[in-house]
């Protein structure tokens, strides 16, 4: 009910953080499904953003993503997170083959008691839907992943942010010899999320 009331009154810092964190939960599920990181039969169909989405039924992954979303809501509320990156690597040799990057923009002067911003739920959902559809369409040009792969989640935060011990420091895990494709963005008026994917260019023998 609190979420519904917040929406009716306009987009606030807190409700905007909820929208963005929820988007990341669905977009990570979409990437993991589209790229075959988990078996397709471990996903189930749900309706979200006016389209059919696939979400994991794997209990370990569900718990991991749920914890991530809750942590992300807090960091978005504090305007302390700049980007989220999904890295896909080969289990055999650790080579990074894909890097999905989502840059997050939010004004530092915005507080939860700031006046709500006006943007309709439908307008935001339509923009998010466009991003998800484009991510789904990337299979046209991305390399076919045929071996066993794993994923890693990187979140860039303010340097002075106190972070739980559950999170470890990591390098950026960039890809050597990569191609980059800029994807669509969406905005809640308070937060803006820009997206792109980098992928390894195959070496011809």
Looking across the biggest beta sheet, what order are the strands in? 5-3-4-7-6
Mean pLDDT value: 86
The parts where pLDDT drops under 50 for at least 5 residues are: 1-6
Provide the gyration radius in Å. Answer: 17 Å
CATH homologous superfamily (4th level) name: HORMA domain
Q: Please state the overall shape, judged from the principal axes of the Cα atoms.
A: globular
CATH architecture: 2-Layer Sandwich
Number of domains: 1
Name the features:
7 strands; alpha+beta; Cell Cycle, Spindle Assembly Checkpoint Protein, Chain A; two-stranded antiparallel sheet; five-stranded antiparallel β-sheet; 205 residues
Q: Could you please describe the fold and organization of this structure?
A:
By secondary structure, the chain is an alpha+beta fold. The protein has one domain (2-200): Cell Cycle, Spindle Assembly Checkpoint Protein, Chain A, CATH 3.30.900.10. It has four helices and seven strands; from the N terminus they run H-H-E-E-H-E-E-H-E-E-E. The chain has helices spanning 2-8, 13-34, 59-77, 121-137; strands spanning 43-48, 51-56, 81-90, 96-106, 149-157, 178-187, 191-200. The chain has a five-stranded antiparallel β-sheet, with helices on one face. Strands 1-2 form a two-stranded antiparallel sheet. Strand 1 (43-48) and strand 2 (51-56) form a beta hairpin. Helix 2 runs antiparallel to helix 3. The longest helix has 22 residues, at 13-34. Residues 1-6 have low confidence and may be disordered.
């Amino acid at each position: 009910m609190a979420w519904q009331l917040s929406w009716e009154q306009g987009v606030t810092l807190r409700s905007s953080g909820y929208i963005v964190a929820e988007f990341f939960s669905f977009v990570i599920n979409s990437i993991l499904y589209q790229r075959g990181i988990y078996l397709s039969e471990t996903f189930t169909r749900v309706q979200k953003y006016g389209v059919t989405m696939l979400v994991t039924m794997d209990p370990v992954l569900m718990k991991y993503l749920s914890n991530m979303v809750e942590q992300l809501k807090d960091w978005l509320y504090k305007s302390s997170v700049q980007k989220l990156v999904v890295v896909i690597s080969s289990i055999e040799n650790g080579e990074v083959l894909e890097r999905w990057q989502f840059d997050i923009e939010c004004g530092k002067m915005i507080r939860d008691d700031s006046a709500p911003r006006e943007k309709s739920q439908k307008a935001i959902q339509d923009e998010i839907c466009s991003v998800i559809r484009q991510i789904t369409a990337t299979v046209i040009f991305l390399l076919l992943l045929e071996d066993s792969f794993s994923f890693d989640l990187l979140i860039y935060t303010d340097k002075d942010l106190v972070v739980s011990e559950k999170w470890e420091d990591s390098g950026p895990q960039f890809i050597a010899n990569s191609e980059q494709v800029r994807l669509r963005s969406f905005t809640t008026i308070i937060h803006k999320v820009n997206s792109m994917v980098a992928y390894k260019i195959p070496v011809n023998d």
